Amino acid sequence: MAKTITSYFEELRGTRVWRSVFRSGTGSSTLHRALAIQQNVFLHLFSTKVRTRMLGFRTTWYLGTLTFGTFLILVGTGIPLMFYYHPSVPQAYADTKDLQFVVSSGLFLRNLHRWSAHAMVFLVFAHMFKVFYRGAYRPPREFNWVIGVILLLITLLLSYTGYLLPWDQLAYWAITVGSNIASAVPVLGNKVHFLMLGGNMVNANALLRFYVLHCMILPLVAMLFVAVHFWRIRKDGGLYAHQSEPRRIAGQATVAEAKGAQH
Amino acid sequence: MSEEKQIIPAEPGNEFNRRAFFVKLGWGSLSIAAAGTAAFGYQYLSPNVLYEPSPIVNAGKPESYAVDSVTLDVNSGIYLIHAQEGFFALSAVCTHLGCLTAWKPELGIIACPCHGSKFKRDGLKIEGPAPRPLPWLQTWVSDEGDLMVDRSITIRPLQFVRI
């Protein structure tokens, strides 16, 4: 009997090494498939069982997943960019130009990082509009909406801090204007401005502070909240099912059906 | 035997026992530590020494500025203006959100490229979102005869330096 690739894979899944890593074991029973999710450190955030309807495009338009996808691209392109970028006043702009014109694939990485950043901001808003207009923010999911708002703010802060790093005229004046907006905070305004920039003007300290925020603090905080955000989906009863559709009353067509019948 | 200890049940008003004491002590020390961390953290993040350019600018010899000229020094962000009445220095940093303004000689006004504020030559606002006029800056003549400007000290308008 000729062995198929599937049977080789089944054999591999039966080996001791494989079993030591994936404890759920071979087999495709409902229990095994549920265990494969539940016993995986990353996947256990999600529900072990989902209605197939919830995985269709129509339910969510995949907007949350796409947002997370752009976040992964941003981490994956941002870390290589850090190998060539020095957050210092004499070097920052030249390094950005080097990434564009000298470093192999530098232009690709930088552009991918930039376009993904734009896409992420767009997708976050699209995701929030979708959630809002479907009413998926309502109890018991209201706290996950709050976490979503925090994630929106983190996304915008990541965008803003990343904006300064090329250290060109656009970056410099955008951050000058943006930080002056912060100093409009009542009473504490000037203190906030001073702490944010590490000085009175956009200079070396500001560049370094924004770099640390952009590459370390904000991504870590984002990951923390993303994990809670995903976990809360399961805890709040899974993805939101559209329960607010007009109920069918016996012998009476819904408004949508009546409209459809006219055409 | 009198070795048996009699446990006194906690009654209302008599609940301060050893556990409550240690719980309070624990939370108390954690609160003090957190407050200290916040205070030290704030101090750590506020730089004590700044490597920023000096606020005092040497604008050179007064003779190099023609009468009725407005000269912008981009690096220091000041205008040096030689009016009929004398010299004065004006901050070129817009009072709205800190953009660098520009002198428009054909219109005889100062304009901000960011949000469209416009000012007269003496700093008074003509239009736009700027909340205040451009401030006049402390100006004097040094012992060497150079015009000096201190960007950190604003003065009341119309205090000309006459030479």
Task: Write structural notes for this entry.
- The complex is a heterodimer of chains A (263) and B (163).
- Chain A has 263 residues and is an all-alpha fold.
- Chain A is built from twelve helices and no strands.
- Chain A has helices spanning 5-14, 16-21, 30-38, 57-60, 63-82, 89-101, 106-134, 142-164, 169-182, 189-197, 204-235, 255-262.
- In chain A, helix 5 packs antiparallel against helix 7.
- Chain A starts with a helix and ends with a helix.
- The mean pLDDT of chain A is 90.
- With 163 residues, chain B is an alpha+beta fold.
- Chain B has a domain at 56-155: Rieske [2Fe-2S] iron-sulphur domain (Rieske Iron-sulfur Protein, 3-layer Sandwich), CATH 2.102.10.
- Chain B has one helix and ten strands; from the N terminus they run αββββββββββ.
- In chain B, the strands form two sheets. In chain B, strands 1-10-9-4-3-2 form a six-stranded antiparallel sheet, with no helix packed on it. Chain B has a four-stranded antiparallel sheet with strand order 5-6-7-8, with no helix packed on it.
- Chain B is elongated, with a radius of gyration of 31 Å.
- The model of chain B has no long low-confidence stretch (mean pLDDT 91).
- Chain A binds chain B through residues 173, 176-177, 179-181, 194-195, 198-201, 203-205, and chain B through 42, 45-47, 50-52, 96-100, 114.
Helix-strand category of chain B: alpha+beta
Report the end-to-end length of chain A measured between terminal Cα atoms.
Answer: 59 Å
Strand percent estimate of chain A: under 5%
The shape of chain B, in one word, is elongated
Spell out the key features of this protein.
A: 263 residues, mainly alpha, B: 163 residues, alpha+beta, Rieske Iron-sulfur Protein, four-stranded antiparallel sheet, 1 helix, 17% helix, elongated
What's this model, at a glance?
The complex is a heterodimer of chains A (263) and B (163). Chain A is mainly α and 263 residues long.
